[in-house]
Amino acid sequence: xxxxxxxxxxxxxDAEFHELNDSIQAVAEETDGYRGKRTxxxxxxxxxxxxxxxxxxxxxxxxxxxxxxxxAKQRWTEWYDAYEVTITDVIETYGSGFGDSADPPK
Length: 106
What we know:
The chain has 3 helices and 4 strands, in the order E-H-E-E-H-H-E. By secondary structure, the chain is an alpha+beta fold.
């Protein structure tokens, strides 16, 4: 499994951002190998972390090839003050579990 952590400092969102964001999320959900996402917000700094769960790098690559996703990446300065993407290969997970909120999301 792979985790893609999208860390962002939000700027101003317009209608086009929301349309593109919804389209990109729909593409992710339709991609074989997409397992879900979790989002955290830091109210003190407004920083946002979104963690996406992928079964394989091939699935992630297929998602990254989407035209809307590529367009959004080119236009990030219009909507974010800063961003960072980290891709992590999960070697192991363990713990007591979180029931219905266990990772990866269902």
